[in-house]
Amino acid sequence: MSTPDRDRLMAYIDNELDTAGRAAVEADAAAMIEIAALQRQADAIRTLFAPAAAEPVPARLDPHRLALVRNRQRVQAVGRAAMIVAVLGVGIAAGWMLRPSGEAPALYDRLIANAVSAHTVYVAEQRHAVEVSGSDSEHLSNWLSNRLASKLAMPDLSAEGLSFLGGRLLPAPEVAGGRAAQLMYEDAAGERLTLYITPSNGVGGPALDTVRFGVDTAVYWADDIFTCTLVGPQSPEAMQAVLTSVAAQLSPGQSQRGYRDL
């Protein structure tokens, strides 16, 4: 091999050649010199950019958050456009719909996005789905209550056909205290639901809301003490029934308010 073939060299480096192919490359001195140079170049690139590769993805680029923002902007645009058509006519409405949108996501929208992201990460885990097992629910309740600075019960959802697997502490820099709790449940079919709970101080937004994310549904609820986002693959109606039980146990005595589907 007087002139090394670049594709063949790359196949060698990627371990895609058979035994005879690798032997032929290794017998060619020029090819091995070129391979050594390519490997040194790859090592230099990894060394140069390794710190950037290790950095977390910025929150503004989180795919669930971007999807949530797009979904809300689309729904809001349709509703407002209908109102403008009725009042001012089609021409003005068309101009309004073409305007650039610079609205930042509301805080509660970001909490819903955080809940979906955490759900996606941890429901796929088997051995490490939770940090503290549901069998130690008293310790889990005390620990999370201390971290959230509010008495947090572990809702019993056995009447809804759900077993309590346990929970964990998560960062939530957007809210007071900077912490969130995630509780995980599982039904008889092995489908998992998660509750993402934060203090409600300073959050604002609606009392109840429902958002679809592909196969998953996120149902958001808030009162004067907590915000709670339930995420799972069940139907919105089933999720709302579960959340009604959750709300009654998290904050007994709080009035129940109607849901608004998006």
TrEMBL record:
TM segment ranges: 77-98
Keywords: Membrane, Transmembrane, Transmembrane helix
Transmembrane helix keyword on record: yes
Protein name, per record: Anti-sigma factor
Organism of derivation: Devosia equisanguinis
